[in-house]
Amino acid sequence: xxxxxxxxxxxxxxxxxxxxxxxxxxxxxxxxxxxxxxxxxxxxxxxxxxxxxxxxxxxxxxxxxxxxxxxxxxxxxxxxxxxxxxxxxxxxxxxxxxxxxxxxxxxxxxxxxxxxxxxxxxxxxxxxxxxxxxxxxxxxxxxxxxxxxxxxxxxxxxxxxxxxxxxxxxxxxxxxxxxxxxxxxxxxxxxxxxxxxxxxxxxxxxxxxxxxxxxxxxxxxxxxxxxxxxxxxxxxxxxxxxxxxxxxxxxxxxxxxxxxxxxxxxxxxxxxxxxxxxxxxxxxxxxxxxxxxxxxxxxxxxxxxxxxxxxxxxxxxxxxxxxxxxxxxxxxxxxx
Length: 336
Prior knowledge:
By secondary structure, this protein is mainly alpha-helical. The protein has helices spanning 30-45, 49-52, 56-82, 99-105, 108-142, 147-159, 162-173, 178-185, 202-226, 231-239, 244-255, 257-272, 276-281, 293-303, 307-335, and strands spanning 85-86, 94-95. Helix content is 68%, strand content 1%. Helix 5 (108-142) runs antiparallel to helix 12.
């Protein structure tokens, strides 16, 4: 073998020729070629001036913001403006400043509506959360057959119009409805009554409808969170002798804190802004035992013709929803 060969085929010395692959003279060495390719790639990958502009992200969100502003912020601003006037909805108006808000502070009907809304939070949010957590844990642990069927049945109230739900439950709660028939059949005739017409039971009866509606949503959220827990953790806990209760509090509950926060936010909003159920079942009665802030907005604006006062109630309700949900979200983030 000739000296200087690298062991390749005869005639090949192992050194690259000075020309290009086709024998053409090269315009530069390998380093220059590599630098040229990198430069070309850099030119191709360099974002355009529009993409590098700090205003570009705002252009992307501008259409959504315009829609949000037109259908949410503008009506809210107009409601805030109306709340500063004494106005019947037509004709001249009188500027009263914060007078409508000061009147609300001593308005018994408004305070009663706020109190009823806080009670409905228990039915719409707290009870569905407790029941949904237990149901989801049972379905998750028991590996129940037909899980899709159970999910559909429990979630069904969420996809039915609340007006239809209200009409159906009004029939169930009537003096000769299904609930009283069942009570009479088991010998509890003394408990039979017109549930929506009794001041002592009307608010709880409306709240129970909210429990029935919200329970499916909460259960699905909890099942979604529990599905992310690795099965190995449950197996390890069972090998350590953990029972169902300890497994629930040690593994399941900490893993679904995020879903609990989401469920609380959604259900609290539903409780505070509920209107259709109250309007269709009791119209705020008997007396004002089931009136809520959103029903007060309707009643004052369209029945009493006090648009300024109704707008003040709407603004206070919006602020209340905002404050409660910010508080719940902050607590949930801190716990996580």
